[in-house]
């Protein structure tokens, strides 16, 4: 039996639920609901036990209990953004609960478990359901990042393999040169300084040769180190740039479904800061790590060649340091991923607030947004503090162990000198090598931190790169040219997560026909348009354009023939001309002006300070809603699409501006297959047919006059809109008179 409560965080009503249980009664599943009976936001709880269905009603502040009996059913439905769960028995409905669609995925599982309990009560065999992934899990792994993920960066490093090989050779040369000077200290001590203290003369030639060797080694190490650092820094920057480009290009190829569950700030953080962190790791720390390994290996060989006994004494701290690194690495790995996620929350607050600053100020919510930022910042501090607590203990402990190892070497070395097993020069050289050995060991331990940071960043990058688009291009795409615009939808079904949005829809649209989509909010109009644009793929059935299934056409080839005019037009930062030519960057100035004239935008563009070269602020700031809309119409006109989608193109403007936009739309729809969603009938009055939708289904289809005569769904929408217009006229003192002319009313879409 699956316990749904294990999928949810502990609920504050859990303790109260325990008090409602009978002796021996076990909880099978729980479901948190977020609305009361009146539809107000409130926290309630439903619990399915082995014998009853318990429900806490927040408005009444009390529990209701329903004894499980054969023949009961739990039904789910949704409408207008709300979900409903109803309990039935043979006599009728026993209870009803409502909640937002955020609770719907868990509600589906709750209902499934209820159905399985009913099977048990009826004595039927029950097949245990397999664990299902959460809805909207877009393929990103929740496992902690592994250091091995860094090896996947080789895919981006391969084009620079010869530069990397040269850098590795330079690094080996520089590392070898640094090991020369300690080796030359032995003859300096044993053949120059100690004999001089015993009364022997200094050999100038030997001294010059030894000092020259020290100088030459230093110069070679410097030159090779500089060349290595410069070369590999260039390579690492290019690897990071390629990684950024590949991630962004892959991101652009993903479907809208992926972006529906992602925050802008988080994606910006991944492509920006994570790739920078990887670049720093590759250019500095990865090389340092390899250098440290080489230095340790070469130093160990030299130490054992000088004196095996002293070399073994040197290795005493190594097992303890290795154990510490193993202990700390896992904590750092998960800690840095948490830091990345919390930092993404900070970026999300900025990405939400700055573009919406006008709304923030209009509603005087500066303090609220500052509080959001402060809370995210406090979380960031808390996560960093926990990680720094671990790291601050680790680093000094490694230093202490290396100091203790140095004391062991001193003690053993003095004992060997006392027994005349080694010379003072040998011990001096040994100590010099030991300093380098322990220094590199300490450096390697510090690299654990940056390695885990890079691994966490690489995981978040590869989470994007590993995601496969839900709207893939076909392996063998079919050519798509000379588009006429005939659209056929057969047996169309679409589910968004666990929610059915479009059901068994059949519709044929003729080339050049204008079809209007009408219905209540949430009836599936926008979803149908998204399916036609192939922003999503259908769950069942097919959409064909000119007889070709959309899934057989390359996405870019298909969308090149679609013009889209949205309710809220989006303009990019740049000039007016650049925005009009966005879909056709190679358009000439004459083509841009012609499109603007057809969209009735030419006159107001000329009134701008620099005409078509006037800069548009971010998201079109500085232009009115109607001006932005006409630019978006010009943008659609310029690409000369065979299929035109109008999504509430005139709903957000005043009547005068609507007339201007309508004249532009009249030019736009000529000779094109047009699908329009509209709030106002003025946009749909010239439509050849109206498609009336309700709960994802087509309930009526036909011209305006025929649908009015039917007095069905469309007629009720039209009458409701007419009454609302009449009421508005009465509130204005009766100055507006609405005649019973169908073309004078608007339809609520």
UniProtKB/TrEMBL annotation:
<dbReference type="InterPro" id="IPR003593">
    <property type="entry name" value="AAA+_ATPase"/>
</dbReference>
<dbReference type="InterPro" id="IPR017871">
    <property type="entry name" value="ABC_transporter-like_CS"/>
</dbReference>
<feature type="transmembrane region" description="Helical">
    <location>
        <begin position="422"/>
        <end position="439"/>
    </location>
</feature>
<keyword id="KW-0472">Membrane</keyword>
<dbReference type="InterPro" id="IPR039421">
    <property type="entry name" value="Type_1_exporter"/>
</dbReference>
<dbReference type="InterPro" id="IPR011527">
    <property type="entry name" value="ABC1_TM_dom"/>
</dbReference>
<feature type="compositionally biased region" description="Acidic residues">
    <location>
        <begin position="128"/>
        <end position="138"/>
    </location>
</feature>
<keyword id="KW-0812">Transmembrane</keyword>
<dbReference type="Pfam" id="PF00005">
    <property type="entry name" value="ABC_tran"/>
</dbReference>
<dbReference type="Pfam" id="PF00664">
    <property type="entry name" value="ABC_membrane"/>
</dbReference>
<feature type="domain" description="ABC transmembrane type-1">
    <location>
        <begin position="165"/>
        <end position="453"/>
    </location>
</feature>
<dbReference type="GO" id="GO:0005524">
    <property type="term" value="F:ATP binding"/>
</dbReference>
<feature type="transmembrane region" description="Helical">
    <location>
        <begin position="278"/>
        <end position="304"/>
    </location>
</feature>
<keyword id="KW-0067">ATP-binding</keyword>
<feature type="transmembrane region" description="Helical">
    <location>
        <begin position="206"/>
        <end position="227"/>
    </location>
</feature>
<feature type="transmembrane region" description="Helical">
    <location>
        <begin position="310"/>
        <end position="328"/>
    </location>
</feature>
<feature type="domain" description="ABC transporter">
    <location>
        <begin position="487"/>
        <end position="720"/>
    </location>
</feature>
<feature type="transmembrane region" description="Helical">
    <location>
        <begin position="393"/>
        <end position="416"/>
    </location>
</feature>
<feature type="region of interest" description="Disordered">
    <location>
        <begin position="122"/>
        <end position="141"/>
    </location>
</feature>
<dbReference type="InterPro" id="IPR036640">
    <property type="entry name" value="ABC1_TM_sf"/>
</dbReference>
<feature type="transmembrane region" description="Helical">
    <location>
        <begin position="164"/>
        <end position="186"/>
    </location>
</feature>
<keyword id="KW-0547">Nucleotide-binding</keyword>
<keyword id="KW-1133">Transmembrane helix</keyword>
<dbReference type="InterPro" id="IPR003439">
    <property type="entry name" value="ABC_transporter-like_ATP-bd"/>
</dbReference>
<keyword id="KW-1003">Cell membrane</keyword>
<protein>
    <submittedName>
        <fullName>ABC transporter ATP-binding protein</fullName>
    </submittedName>
</protein>
<dbReference type="InterPro" id="IPR027417">
    <property type="entry name" value="P-loop_NTPase"/>
</dbReference>
């Amino acid at each position: 039996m699956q316990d749904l409560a294990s999928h949810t965080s502990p609920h504050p009503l859990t303790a109260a639920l325990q008090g409602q249980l009978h002796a021996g009664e076990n909880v099978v599943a729980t479901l948190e609901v977020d609305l009361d009976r009146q539809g107000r936001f409130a926290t309630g709880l439903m619990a399915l036990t082995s014998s009853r269905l318990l429900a806490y009603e927040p408005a009444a502040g009390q529990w209701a209990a329903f004894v499980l009996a054969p023949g009961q059913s739990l039904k789910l439905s949704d409408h207008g953004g709300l979900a409903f769960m109803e309990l039935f028995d043979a006599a009728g409905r026993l209870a009803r609960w409502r909640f937002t669609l955020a609770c719907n995925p868990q509600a589906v599982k709750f209902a499934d478990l209820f159905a399985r309990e009913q099977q048990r009560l009826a004595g039927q065999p029950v097949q245990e359901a397999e664990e299902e992934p959460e809805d909207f899990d877009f393929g990103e792994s929740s496992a902690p990042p592994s250091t091995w993920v860094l090896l996947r960066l080789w895919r981006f490093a391969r084009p620079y393999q010869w530069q990397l090989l040269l850098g590795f050779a330079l690094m080996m040369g520089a590392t070898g040169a640094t090991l020369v000077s300690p080796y030359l200290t032995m003859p300096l001590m044993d053949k120059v300084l100690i004999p001089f203290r015993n009364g022997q003369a200094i050999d100038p030639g030997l001294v010059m040769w030894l000092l020259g060797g020290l100088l030459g080694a230093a110069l070679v190490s410097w030159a090779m180190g500089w060349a290595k650092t410069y070369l590999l820094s260039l390579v690492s920057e290019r690897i990071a740039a390629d990684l950024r480009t590949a991630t962004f290009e892959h991101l652009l190829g993903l479907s809208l479904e992926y972006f529906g569950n992602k925050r802008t700030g988080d994606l910006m953080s991944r492509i920006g800061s994570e790739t920078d962190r990887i670049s720093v790791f590759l250019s500095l720390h990865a090389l340092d790590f390899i250098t440290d390994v080489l230095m340790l290996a070469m130093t160990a060989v030299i130490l054992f060649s000088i004196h095996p006994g002293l070399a073994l004494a040197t290795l005493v701290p190594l097992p303890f340091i290795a154990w510490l690194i193993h202990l700390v690495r896992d904590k750092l790995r998960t800690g840095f991923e948490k830091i990345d996620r919390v930092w993404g929350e900070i970026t999300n607050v900025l990405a939400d607030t700055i573009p919406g600053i006008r709304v923030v100020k209009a509603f005087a919510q500066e303090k609220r947004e500052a509080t959001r930022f402060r809370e995210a910042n406090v979380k960031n501090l808390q996560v960093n503090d926990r990680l720094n607590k671990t790291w601050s203990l680790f680093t000094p402990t490694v230093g202490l162990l290396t100091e203790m190892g140095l004391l062991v070497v001193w003690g053993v070395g003095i004992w060997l000198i006392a027994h005349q097993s080694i010379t003072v020069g040998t011990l001096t050289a040994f100590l010099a090598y030991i300093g380098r050995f322990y220094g590199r060991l300490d450096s390697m331990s510090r690299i654990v931190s940056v390695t885990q940071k890079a691994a966490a960043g690489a995981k978040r990058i590869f989470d994007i790169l590993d995601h496969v688009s839900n709207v893939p291009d076909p392996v063998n795409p079919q050519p798509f040219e000379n588009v006429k615009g005939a659209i056929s939808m057969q047996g169309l079904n679409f589910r968004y997560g666990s929610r059915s949005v479009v059901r068994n829809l059949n519709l044929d649209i003729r080339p050049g026909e204008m079809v209007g989509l009408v219905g209540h909010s949430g009836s599936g109009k926008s979803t149908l348009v998204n399916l036609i644009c192939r922003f999503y793929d259908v769950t069942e059935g097919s959409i064909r354009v000119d007889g070709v299934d959309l899934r057989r056409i390359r996405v870019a080839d298909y969308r090149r023939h679609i013009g889209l005019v949205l309710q809220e037009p989006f303009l990019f930062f740049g000039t007016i001309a650049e925005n009009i030519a966005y879909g056709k960057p190679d358009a000439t100035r004459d083509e841009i002006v012609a499109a603007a004239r057809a969209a009735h935008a030419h006159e107001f563009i000329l009134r701008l300070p620099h005409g078509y070269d006037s800069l548009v602020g971010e998201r079109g700031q500085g232009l009115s809603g109607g001006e932005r809309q006409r630019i978006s119409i010009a943008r659609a006109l310029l690409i000369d699409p065979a299929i035109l989608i109008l999504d509430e193109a005139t709903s957000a403007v005043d009547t005068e501006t609507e007339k201007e936009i309508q004249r532009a739309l009249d030019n736009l729809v000529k000779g094109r297959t047009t699908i329009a969603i509209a709030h106002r009938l003025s946009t749909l009055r010239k439509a050849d047919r109206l498609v009336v939708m309700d709960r994802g289904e087509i309930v009526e289809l036909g011209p305006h006059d025929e649908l009015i005569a039917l007095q069905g769904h469309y007629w009720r929408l039209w009458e409701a809109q007419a009454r609302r217009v009449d009421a508005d006229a009465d509130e204005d003192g009766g100055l507006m008179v609405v005649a019973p002319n169908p073309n004078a009313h608007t339809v609520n879409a």
